[in-house]
Amino acid sequence: MSANTKKVITILLIVIITAFTACTGNKDNIQDNDQVVETEGNQGENIPPTDKEPEEIVEDEPEPEQEVSQTLGLDELKDLKVNELGKIMVIMYHGIGENEEEWVRTPENFRKDLKTLYDNGYRAIGMKDYIEGNIDTPPGTTPVILTFDDGLQNQFNILDDGGDFEVDPDSAVGILEEFNEQYPDFGLKATFYVFYPVPFRQEELIAKKFEYLVEKGMEIGNHAYTHENLRADMNTKEPRDAQFVQEALGKNVQLTQEILPGYEVDSLALPYGAAPQDEDVFNYVVKGSFEGTEYHHKVVLLVGSNPARSPYHIETNMARLPRVRGSEMNTEGTGIYDWLDYFDKNPEERFISDGDPNTISFPKELEEYMDPERAGGRTIQAYE
């Protein structure tokens, strides 16, 4: 072999070795830098390298579980003697004043009433709660409804101290707020049945008072336009007709809604406890209209006499709901302390809450008194 041939062969071997080495190095670089990512729309494509740091993968936090109201167990229902078909006191108050009278409670006695109710396991609910069957008082307690007729100044008085909106601490609203601060689990609930032209007797403050009550969770009800007797004319004794009744009740709702647009006035306290005797006319006490304002009283309250039935009870008549008198004078068995004593002696007749607004619990032997149509989708639970 000539020298030139050896030289050519040597050069060819060097070229082959160099090419092989380069190919091996490129293969390693591809594996290190160009990752193959399979995603929807670019499956199998090479994603070019980037200088950015890879984003940290954070797992989504699980959504918090919704709070589920737990019903009491069978033994607890029995131990607490839960009975949500029992009776509820709707207490009727009028004035709060310096001297105790048949229709006036002193501030001291009203405070005593609240403390006595609290100590005996009563907790306040609103009239709207009763209407809707929304009983959410703690297990073993009894709901109570506080009502005030006439919209008197001593029920909601604002002190004249230079323009500040300061609630009189000895008015009904002031006492309720003070008690709620001391015992917040009692509930700041009450319904005020007002008439016109000047509810609460401070004309320049009507709107502010209404707004204040509603913001606090208290309620405003109908007590007719000017406290008219809806049964008969007080002088002539002529019975009222449908037109008179609708005007008296519709005007009240109309004026309240002018102050509180959209507010639903859904309960009525009959002035003097008087209702039309004619059933056709009485229907307009419950529902009617005046000058384009429609009203529907889902509860019509009588003058104090005895506790109301449960809102779930088959015999409950929302159109003629009785009340207990907030008084100790001339009650003749119709007052708050008469009925507190009665329930002490007859605890099986008292409404006892299971603490769950989504269930209606009662002893099995009372099952026939449960009205399923009033359950409103709640679970009915009869226990033995």
User: What spatial form do the alpha-carbon principal axes imply?
Assistant: globular
Taking pLDDT < 50 over at least 5 consecutive residues as the criterion, the unreliable ranges are: 1-69
- Please identify, by name, the CATH architecture of the largest domain: Alpha-Beta Barrel
> What order do the helices and strands follow?
HHEEEHEHEEEHEHEHEHEEEEHEE
Helix run count: 9
Please supply descriptive tags for the structure shown above.
two-stranded parallel sheet; 30% helix; TIM Barrel; alpha/beta; 17% strand; 2 domains; 9 helices; 384 residues; disordered N terminus; 16 strands; eight-stranded parallel beta sheet
Structure description:
- This protein is of the alpha/beta class.
- It has 2 domains: 1-45; 75-383, Glycoside hydrolase/deacetylase (TIM Barrel, Alpha-Beta Barrel), CATH 3.20.20.
- It contains 9 helices and 16 strands.
- Strands 1, 4, 5, 8, 9, 10, 13 and 14 form an 8-stranded parallel β-sheet that branches. A two-stranded parallel sheet has the order 2-3.
- Strand 6 and strand 7 form a beta hairpin.
- Helix 3 (107-119) runs parallel beside helix 5 and helix 7 runs parallel beside helix 8 (279-286).
What layout of secondary structure does this protein have?
Layout: H1 3-33, H2 74-80, E1 89-93, E2 95-96, E3 104-105, H3 107-119, E4 122-124, H4 127-132, E5 142-149, E6 158-159, E7 166-167, H5 172-182, E8 191-194, H6 206-216, E9 219-222, H7 242-259, E10 267-269, H8 279-286, E11 287-290, E12 293-296, E13 299-304, E14 321-325, H9 336-345, E15 359-363, E16 379-383
Parallel strand pairs: 1-5, 1-14, 2-3, 4-5, 5-8, 8-9, 10-13, 13-14, 15-16
Antiparallel strand pairs: 6-7, 11-12
Helix pairs in contact: 3-5, 7-8
